[in-house]
């Protein structure tokens, strides 16, 4: 996909924001286990960056999804994964279904303030027994007059401690697992909603993550997104943007692993010569950068198709799978070249090693991506490739 001057201008805006307002504060935020999310979101809202591909009717910019991907790829240059993740939850995980399928009233009440940075959103799908297996969620929403009564719990919810609303997948019936679910917007201050203690995580430490519990929570049926029973399908559609967003966030981060390692091994001497002079080292770095460029090409191929109105489930799954694989191998290889310094908490490669590991898990594990790809290729046992 060829980027326009408008894309490049957006890149510069986001690059300046990351360099001036995020990176200088990362060490402090990582130690604190949180960042000033409302302050950062308000600033992003002022710049129009929280609703790039959303309708101007609800404070968005009305641009196509490629501009949002430019934003996310550049955001991935932050010196941590947690802050970009929290922002992507706002732009690409908790709001796509709201923007595309909700009523005008719901959009006005929740989408518009989220785009302006006045509200913090979270996506509440995963549960202790239902992570990548979305169909297995147990949280229920039982009709009661014009309301639903919601009971259940969600796990690993990014932004939960500071969220104003949860885009929540629930069971609204007893039918088949793929047809009995609905998406509800549940305001965080609704009686019966409780956010648990923040989780102490391996990485992504500057983003706040916690379980969420629903105990006889009464929610108006008007807070449902789309038709009752359509929630699984809507969440799958939402996953296309989420998985592309997650992939975009990795590209610059992986590139930073390579470039920072080049700088380090050029200065680091072993056996009276720069470590970079070792063919094993510079060949490995060239290989890693090649892999990053392959990921970038695949991701942007998927984006171009998505902007063109195509179903990109296969391409998005492939890009997510590749991002997950590289997010394990590249930081690991780079850390090895840093030696003992790579094992020190304050180094950027140490943080990348921890933060990047989530890519192969969140938004659908590698194994789930492989299952989707195999299914759409028609190579699962007993399955045939769908006809055109």
UniProtKB/TrEMBL annotation:
MF GO annotations: oxidoreductase activity
UniProt domain Acyl-CoA oxidase/dehydrogenase middle: residue ranges: 122-217
Coiled coil (residue ranges): none
Acyl-CoA dehydrogenase/oxidase N-terminal domain segment(s): 4-118
Flavoprotein among keywords: yes
Alphabetized InterPro entries for the sequence: Acyl-CoA_dehydrogenase (IPR050741), Acyl-CoA_DH_CS (IPR006089), Acyl-CoA_Oxase/DH_mid-dom (IPR006091), Acyl-CoA_Oxase/DH_mid-dom_sf (IPR046373), AcylCo_DH-like_C (IPR036250), AcylCo_DH/oxidase_C (IPR009075), AcylCoA_DH/ox_N (IPR013786), AcylCoA_DH/ox_N_sf (IPR037069)
Keyword Oxidoreductase among record annotations: yes
Alphabetized Pfam families for the sequence: Acyl-CoA_dh_1 (PF00441), Acyl-CoA_dh_M (PF02770), Acyl-CoA_dh_N (PF02771)
Keyword entries, A-Z: FAD, Flavoprotein, Oxidoreductase
Domain Acyl-CoA dehydrogenase/oxidase C-terminal, residue spans: 229-375
Protein family (similarity comment): Belongs to the acyl-CoA dehydrogenase family.
Protein name: Acyl-CoA dehydrogenase family protein
């Amino acid at each position: 996909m060829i980027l326009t001057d408008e894309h490049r201008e957006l890149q510069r805006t986001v690059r300046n924001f990351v360099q001036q307002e995020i990176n200088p504060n990362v060490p402090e935020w990582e130690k604190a286990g949180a960042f000033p999310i409302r302050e950062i979101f308000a600033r992003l809202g002022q710049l129009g960056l929280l609703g790039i591909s959303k309708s101007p009717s609800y404070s968005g910019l009305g641009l196509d999804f490629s501009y949002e991907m430019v934003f996310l790829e550049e955001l991935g240059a932050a010196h941590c994964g947690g802050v970009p993740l929290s922002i992507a939850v706002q732009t690409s995980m908790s709001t796509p279904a709201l923007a595309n399928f909700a009523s005008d009233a719901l959009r006005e009440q929740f989408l518009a303030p989220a785009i302006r940075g006045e509200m913090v959103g979270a996506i509440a799908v995963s549960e202790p027994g239902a992570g990548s297996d979305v169909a297995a969620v147990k949280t229920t929403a039982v009709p009661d007059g014009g309301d639903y009564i919601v009971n259940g719990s969600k796990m690993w919810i990014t932004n939960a401690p500071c969220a104003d609303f949860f885009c929540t997948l629930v069971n609204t019936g007893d039918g088949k697992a793929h047809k009995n679910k609905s998406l509800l917007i549940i305001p965080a201050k609704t009686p019966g909603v409780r956010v648990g203690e923040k989780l102490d995580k391996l990485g992504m430490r500057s983003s706040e993550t916690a379980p969420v519990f629903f105990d006889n929570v009464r929610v108006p049926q008007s807070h449902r997104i789309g038709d009752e029973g359509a929630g699984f399908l809507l969440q799958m559609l939402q996953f296309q943007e989420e998985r592309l967003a997650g992939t975009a966030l990795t590209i610059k981060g992986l590139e930073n692993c390579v470039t920072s390692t080049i700088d380090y091994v050029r200065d680091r001497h072993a056996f009276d010569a720069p470590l970079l002079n070792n063919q094993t080292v510079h060949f490995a770095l060239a290989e890693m950068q090649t892999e990053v460029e392959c990921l970038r090409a695949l991701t942007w191929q998927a984006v171009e198709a998505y902007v063109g109105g195509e179903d990109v489930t296969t391409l998005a799954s492939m890009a997510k799978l590749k991002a997950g694989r590289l997010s394990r191998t590249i930081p690991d290889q780079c850390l090895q070249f840093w030696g003992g310094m790579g094992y020190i908490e304050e180094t950027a490669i140490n943080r990348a090693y921890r933060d990047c590991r989530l890519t192969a898990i969140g938004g659908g594990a590698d194994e789930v991506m492989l299952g989707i790809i195999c299914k759409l290729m028609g190579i699962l046992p007993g399955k045939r490739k769908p006809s055109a």
